Amino acid sequence: MAHSSRTWKGARTPSALKRVRQSERKHAVNQARRSATKTLVKKALTVAGEGQTEQAATALVDAVSALDKAAKLGTIHPNAAARRKSRLMRKVSAALGGTIVGAAAKPTRVTGKAAAQKAARARVAASKAAKAKGEQTAAGKARAALTRSTRGDAHAKPAAETGAATPEAKASPTTSATKGTGKTAATKAAKAAPKATSKAKGSAADKPAAKRTTKAKS
Fold first, then answer.
1. Of the listed ranges 23-27, 92-96, 190-194, the one predicted with least confidence
2. Would you state the pLDDT for residue 9?
């Protein structure tokens, strides 16, 4: 037996039937939101027509908030929400004798928290990259060399005035231990060098003699 009659012109496939069910649920929710929005707009106009300024301001805030929420949730188009808010403002102002009621909605955040943090990290990375690239140019290299030279001169002047030992003097081969014995590492190395060379020469001289003895035996 067929799932539907031949004269049926609606959905037949499972996906199409599912879409129909979804549309019915969305229509029920959106219809309630549209009705609530229209009710709040009508209430604001009624209160403003009676000349109640304070109540009109409160009702206008509620109506504008409902329109913004409906536009955000997709119940109505954002342009339709903006148009209806503009018309509502003009009607309320005209009903109250030209006085404009301050009914500005809550300021909406343009970017989210995660997006703001990401943008901040990108700005920091860009600034670091710009600073790193500054020294690559000729002017940047010249400035860096000038700052290094000025810092070196500034450190050298106090040392020369006070007579303090420089790093080169501190790194001299003579130490406190070698001063007492009168022997330095340099003199030890100089004495050990001739011995090593003599040993190397002796070993080189012995090799030909060994070769001659082997030849004579053969």
1. 190-194
2. 83
Nearest to 67 by CA among 83, 49, 47: 83
pLDDT tens digits for range 59-87: 999 999 999 999 999 999 999 999 999 99
Say if pTM beats, i.e. exceeds, 0.70. Answer: no
How distant, in Å, are the alpha carbons of 14, 32, 68, 106, 111 from that of 73? 27, 13, 9, 16, 17
Interhelix angle for 53-72 vs 78-95, to 10°? 170
Terminal alpha carbon distance of the chain? 116
Average pLDDT in the chain: 74
Half-sphere exposure of 71 (CA within 13 A, CB side): 16
* Paired tokens of 206: 């012995």
d(CA 48, CA 110): 32
Place of tokens 């600073």: 131
- Residues 61 and 66: their CA atoms lie apart, in Å, by 9
Q: Look up tokens 């909605």; give the residue.
A: 105
